[in-house]
Protein backbone atom coordinates (compact mmCIF):
# COMPACT_ATOMS: atom_id res chain seq x y z
CA UNK A 1 0.00 0.00 0.00
CA UNK A 2 1.39 3.40 -0.97
CA UNK A 3 1.62 6.35 1.37
CA UNK A 4 -1.03 8.14 -0.69
CA UNK A 5 -3.37 5.16 -0.22
CA UNK A 6 -2.71 5.10 3.52
CA UNK A 7 -3.63 8.77 3.75
CA UNK A 8 -6.86 8.42 1.75
CA UNK A 9 -9.65 10.22 3.55
CA UNK A 10 -7.18 12.14 5.71
CA UNK A 11 -6.19 15.78 5.45
CA UNK A 12 -2.49 16.50 5.83
CA UNK A 13 -1.61 19.87 7.35
CA UNK A 14 1.92 21.24 7.44
CA UNK A 15 2.15 23.50 10.47
CA UNK A 16 5.21 25.25 9.11
CA UNK A 17 6.26 27.64 6.40
CA UNK A 18 9.48 25.73 5.80
CA UNK A 19 10.26 25.52 2.08
CA UNK A 20 12.30 22.35 2.67
CA UNK A 21 9.41 20.58 4.38
CA UNK A 22 7.03 21.73 1.65
CA UNK A 23 9.38 20.37 -1.01
CA UNK A 24 9.77 17.10 0.88
CA UNK A 25 6.00 16.54 0.96
CA UNK A 26 5.69 17.54 -2.71
CA UNK A 27 8.48 15.11 -3.62
CA UNK A 28 6.48 12.39 -1.87
CA UNK A 29 3.50 13.29 -4.06
CA UNK A 30 1.34 14.25 -1.08
CA UNK A 31 -1.49 16.77 -1.05
CA UNK A 32 -1.24 19.07 1.93
CA UNK A 33 -2.32 22.42 3.28
CA UNK A 34 0.01 24.92 4.93
CA UNK A 35 -1.19 26.43 8.21
CA UNK A 36 1.55 28.44 9.83
CA UNK A 37 1.07 29.97 13.27
CA UNK A 38 3.60 32.42 14.62
CA UNK A 39 5.13 31.30 17.90
CA UNK A 40 8.12 32.32 19.94
CA UNK A 41 10.62 29.50 19.70
CA UNK A 42 11.97 29.51 23.22
CA UNK A 43 12.91 26.40 25.14
CA UNK A 44 13.92 25.69 28.73
CA UNK A 45 17.66 25.88 29.27
CA UNK A 46 17.47 22.57 31.13
CA UNK A 47 16.64 20.61 27.96
CA UNK A 48 19.30 18.42 26.41
CA UNK A 49 20.24 19.26 22.84
CA UNK A 50 18.48 16.08 21.67
CA UNK A 51 15.20 17.14 23.31
CA UNK A 52 15.08 20.67 21.87
CA UNK A 53 13.67 19.86 18.37
CA UNK A 54 10.93 17.65 19.83
CA UNK A 55 10.00 20.32 22.37
CA UNK A 56 9.85 23.00 19.65
CA UNK A 57 7.80 20.77 17.31
CA UNK A 58 5.26 20.20 20.09
CA UNK A 59 5.25 23.93 20.82
CA UNK A 60 4.46 24.60 17.14
CA UNK A 61 1.58 22.10 17.25
CA UNK A 62 -0.17 23.59 20.28
CA UNK A 63 -1.91 26.55 18.56
CA UNK A 64 -3.42 24.20 15.96
CA UNK A 65 -4.89 21.54 18.22
CA UNK A 66 -8.27 23.15 18.87
CA UNK A 67 -8.84 23.59 15.11
CA UNK A 68 -8.17 20.02 13.99
CA UNK A 69 -10.88 17.77 12.61
CA UNK A 70 -10.80 14.00 13.22
CA UNK A 71 -9.47 13.35 9.68
CA UNK A 72 -6.67 15.91 10.01
CA UNK A 73 -3.03 14.96 10.41
CA UNK A 74 -0.85 17.82 11.62
CA UNK A 75 2.85 17.73 10.82
CA UNK A 76 5.19 20.00 12.77
CA UNK A 77 8.94 19.65 13.06
CA UNK A 78 12.06 21.50 14.03
CA UNK A 79 15.75 21.26 13.30
CA UNK A 80 18.64 22.67 15.28
CA UNK A 81 22.34 22.92 14.62
CA UNK A 82 24.42 22.07 17.67
CA UNK A 83 28.05 22.96 17.97
CA UNK A 84 30.29 22.25 20.94
Describe this structure in words.
- The chain has about 80 residues and is α/β, with parallel strands linked by helices.
- The protein is built from three helices and three strands; from the N terminus they run H-E-H-E-H-E.
- It has helices at about 5, 20-25, 50-60, and strands at about 10-15, 35, 70-75.
- It has a three-stranded parallel beta sheet with strand order 2-1-3, with no helix packed on it.
- It is globular and about 40 Å long.
- The model has no long low-confidence stretch (mean pLDDT about 95).
Characteristic key phrases:
alpha/beta; 84 residues; 3 strands; 3-stranded parallel β-sheet; 3 helices; 27% helix
Amino acid sequence: MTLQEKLKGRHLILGSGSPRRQQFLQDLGLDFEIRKKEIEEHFPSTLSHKAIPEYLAELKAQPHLSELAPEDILLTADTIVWSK
